[in-house]
Amino acid sequence: EADIYQTPRYLVIGTGKKITLECSQTMGHDKMYWYQQDPGMELHLIHYSYGVNSTEKGDLSSESTVSRIRTEHFPLTLESARPSHTSQYLCASSEYGPLHFGNGTRLTVT
Amino acid sequence: AQKVTQAQTEISVVEKEDVTLDCVYETRDTTYYLFWYKQPPSGELVFLIRRNSFDEQNEISGRYSWNFQKSTSSFNFTITASQVVDSAVYFCALSRNAGGTSYGKLTFGQGTILTVHP
C-alpha cells in the first residue's frame, strides 16, 4: 500500500503570490504524476516524472513547474498565482501497478 | 488521441438497488489498460480495477462487477445491492500499454456522481 501525502489540504491565496504544493511518497516509487481536477470534475495530467532529475509536461498545458530532486518528493510551483489556477491538484505515484493518489490540494486564488 | 466518455453525470438510487455506471472509450492503440477509480468526499482517488485490453473476461469482486466489451469499446461497472457508503464520484480511465510511464498517464472520463439514499 503506497503512502502519498499532499500539503496543504486547502489553500486560499491572492493573485500574484508564489505557491508550492508539496507531494511526498514513502514507497520509493520512481514514477510520480500531477493531475489537475477542474470544478467540472474531469482530471488532466499536467506533469510527470520517471525519477530523480526527470520531469515532463503532461497532456494539459500548465503554467506550473515541478522538480524532482529526491525520489520521494515531487513539488509543484506556481510563480504567480491567478484565479484561473483555482482547481484541485492531485499527486500520484506508481511503479508498474495502478496509480496511488494523495488526498489532493484544493487551491483557490482570489 | 484517446477519449473516455461517461455519459451519466449523476445517478441517484435508493439503498439496495443495483446500479450500472457506463464507460465508453476511444483509442487507436491495439493494446491498452482500462481502470475504474472511486473518489469519496475526502478527495483521494481509490483504485478499484485494472483491465488489460487482451483480457475480456468479466470480473466480480464482492458487490462490484465489471463488463468489458471490446466490440463496443465499453467497460461498464455495476454495483449490486448499493449501500450509502458507495456514494462517491466514479471515474473510468484509459492508458496506453507502451511500457515506462505510459501506464500512469491516464485519460479520465468526466466522472459519474453516485448518490445512494438510505
Descriptive account of the structure:
- The complex is a heterodimer of chains A (110) and B (118).
- Chain A is an all-beta fold and 110 residues long.
- Helix content of chain A is 0%, strand content 46%.
- In chain A, a hairpin with a 5-residue loop joins strand 4 and strand 5 (43-49).
- The radius of gyration of chain A is 13 Å and the shape is globular.
- Chain B has 118 residues and is mostly beta strands.
- Chain B has strands at 3-5, 10-14, 19-21, 24-26, 32-39, 46-52, 59-61, 64-69, 74-79, 88-96, 107-108, 112-117.
- In chain B, strands 2, 5, 6, 10, 11 and 12 form a six-stranded mixed β-sheet that branches. A four-stranded antiparallel β-sheet of chain B has the order 3-9-8-7, with no helix packed on it.
- In chain B, strand 8 and strand 9 form a beta hairpin.
- Chain B is globular and about 45 Å long.
- The mean pLDDT of chain B is 91.
- Chain A binds chain B through residues 31, 33, 35, 40-45, 48, 50, 56, 58-59, 88, 90, 92, 94, 96, 98-104, 106, and chain B through 35, 37, 42-47, 50, 89, 91, 100-101, 103-111, 113.
Topology:
The complex is a heterodimer of chains A (110) and B (118).
Chain A: E1 4-7, E2 10-13, E3 19-25, E4 31-37, E5 43-49, E6 56-57, E7 65-66, E8 76-78, E9 87-94, E10 100-101, E11 105-109
Parallel strand pairs in A: 2-11
Antiparallel strand pairs in A: 1-3, 3-8, 4-5, 4-9, 5-6, 7-8, 9-10, 9-11
Chain B: E1 3-5, E2 10-14, E3 19-21, E4 24-26, E5 32-39, E6 46-52, E7 59-61, E8 64-69, E9 74-79, E10 88-96, E11 107-108, E12 112-117
Parallel strand pairs in B: 2-12
Antiparallel strand pairs in B: 1-4, 3-9, 5-6, 5-10, 7-8, 8-9, 10-11, 10-12
